[in-house]
Amino acid sequence: MTSFASEKLKVYYWPMFGRAGAALRMLEHTGTKYEHISAFPDIAGVCTAFGGGSDTFAPPIVVDGEYQISQSTAVTTYVGQKSGLGAGVDQFKAAQYLADIVDLFEGGIGKNSGAGGAALKIYLEGDGSGKPSRFTKQATNLSRGIKGPYFFGDSPSYVDFFLCQHMDWQDEMCLRRLREEIQLDCFGPYPKIKAVAEGIRNLDSYKNYSGPLKTCGRPGFVKEDDFFAAYKGKKVRAVVLCAGQGSRLRPLTNTVPKCMVKYKGNCIIDYILASLRASGVEDICLVKGYLASVLERKDTTSIVNKDYDKTNMVATLFCAEEQLDSVDDLVLSYSDIIYNPKIVQALLASNADVSVVIDRQWRSLWEARMENPLTDAETLKISEDGFITEIGKKPKSYDEIEGQYIGLMKFSAAGVKILREHYHALDKNAIYDGKSYPNMYMTTLLQSLINSGVKVSPVFIDGGWTEVDEPTDLEYDLDVSSIPL
Ligand SMILES: N[C@@H](CCC(=O)N[C@@H](CS)C(=O)NCC(=O)O)C(=O)O
Fold this sequence. Notes:
By secondary structure, the protein is α/β, with parallel strands linked by helices. 37% of the residues lie in helices and 16% in strands.
């Protein structure tokens, strides 16, 4: 039995459940007639916030005959009590729980997630001091109020609908992705709270709702990849491309892959691992190919490019595609280069979506390694606003070389997504700089990204690295003393 003043209640709210979720769900559940008014001029007329002349500030607003009420807590109480969902409810405790729910979901999760993934992490998990987080205290408190299965016992009340409204909203904003991608189920330790939301979601009125409303009408509200990356603390993973045969280094590569050739007494790969780890990059995946079983390194993961003899760098990278999620940043490294930790740190410090290490002092290294540097060097041009416009072509003169690509780069979590989508959208039958799709060079892919409008940022270095292509490269004297092997 309902006791509304009017035949048909008016609910003024945007075209979504949002903060009107509890009221709308209760009206659906009790079969009460209502009109959902969501055109802006109509909403504005009842909202002081938008110029209206009443004492109700912002949506949701319920109009029941002469009576007009706002604030989602008050609206929920009004609709709940008048629609019969206040039976057995201690109204004073209910007022407390509604405020507690707002404090936890809007003040806690909402406000902190608005400040970014890092702020939400501290709110949910604590500041690392070992003291319980604010969320822990609030959720413990809220949970204690629930008799079970619902707040006031066996049947759902308006407080339960209100909790579910908030749970639905925050699930959509961020909690679902935290559970799925970061395995963080923040309400896991509070089964009573989860049971309330589940109980409401299992009601026929909720399950069978077929109207147009979604929890959140605007996708722009929902947290994006960078938020989750910030939550994870910008974890960086590295993929090292180790599939190559290194034919020019034979016989040194007859029994080991190229990255295991020794430079100053140590395998090239061990310099790479040491520089990455010294810079805090622990999660390292080696993509192996030629003599895969010979390359074993502790605390690394690996994947094998079985077609290593028929494919090139890009195809090798995409063998590790399962490593390329859109949460972690990715450092991508060739395995025939040796670089010091400072170079990795400069790369990590870049905030760009795509960052490529560029050596401005490349010429002295090339001059030491070969007779005519121009024959082996590649073009690199930078725009006035500081982005790479051209990379990896055959240069006609030194003017076309503003630095040299070294085979080390970083993609932000968003950059990884851009890279993957771009690569998969390319025509697999086309020829790229004279190469088939599986044989595409990394610089060709970077150029293709640039051509499609993606900003590729140089991270300039001045030496501190070398490359091993020919046996004579092993004679070059790089100072490796800062690489902690
Ligand atoms: N505390 C109020 C907040 C109301 C509110 O923020 N409404 C939003 C839509 S969900 C709005 O349109 N606000 C407009 C404004 O504050 O200017 C409640 O819970 O009802």
